[in-house]
Amino acid sequence: GENVEQHPSTLSVQEGDSAVIKCTYSDSASNYFPWYKQELGKRPQLIIDIRSNVGEKKDQRIAVTLNKTAKHFSLHITETQPEDSAVYFCAASINGGSQGNLIFGKGTKLSVKP
Amino acid sequence: GAGVSQTPSNKVTEKGKYVELRCDPISGHTALYWYRQSLGQGPEFLIYFQGTGAADDSGLPNDRFFAVRPEGSVSTLKIQRTERGDSAVYLCASSFYREDRQFFGPGTRLTVL
User: Fold this and answer.
1) Strand A56-59 relative to strand A62-67, pairing
2) Between chains, do A100 and B31 touch, taking CB under 8 Å as contact?
3) Does the beta-carbon distance from A43 to B105 stay under 8 Å?
4) Whole-angstrom Cα distance, residue B33 to residue B97?
5) Which of A32, A46, A101 lies nearest to residue B45, judging by beta carbons?
6) Residue A43 and residue B106: Cβ atoms within 8 Å?
7) Residue B30: per-residue pLDDT
8) What is the DSSP string of B27-46?
9) What percent of chain B has pLDDT over 90?
């Protein structure tokens, strides 16, 4: 089955710097890759997603890139702010088959220091 | 509009007891998922419903776990003979259809003493 690896497990940056979180997946059939932000004690919130027919997607300060050949995708946050501090999870799934469930990475705890 | 809701928010029970966890998906969403999140981990898939039927229950850890969605909306996750290892946050997510974005509820924190 699918396996998603996420790095780093913790990331500390200064306010205004950029943050990059990387994920790799094992199943070449995976074609949908969302990113979720989870604050302590809160629900995971979808912040951006990308499908396999696209290589890059951007939404204000957040961007995601996908390399299908290498089976990895990354989250980029620019001009980080203290409110970006949270745990970020990447996930992968195979849409179009019999499954729709997401396989998550173990998360990256991002700390943005003012 | 209203998001996914889950009740109770917290549940404390004793080993061996039976518990039911409820999920109210976003209105009109046909797909519903249950996940389990242990401390410091990402959510792990348990079961997926398309309408009233369980389309994929491959993530249920054993036969003590069961879920229903009788009318294609609200879903209940049922755990029999709870064990301490069942302690986790149980998350529900819904999407308009199977290939659409999934939106999560706030979760139920289950503690088995």
Assistant:
1) antiparallel
2) yes
3) yes
4) 11
5) A101
6) yes
7) 93
8) TT--EEEEEEE-TTS--EEE
9) 88
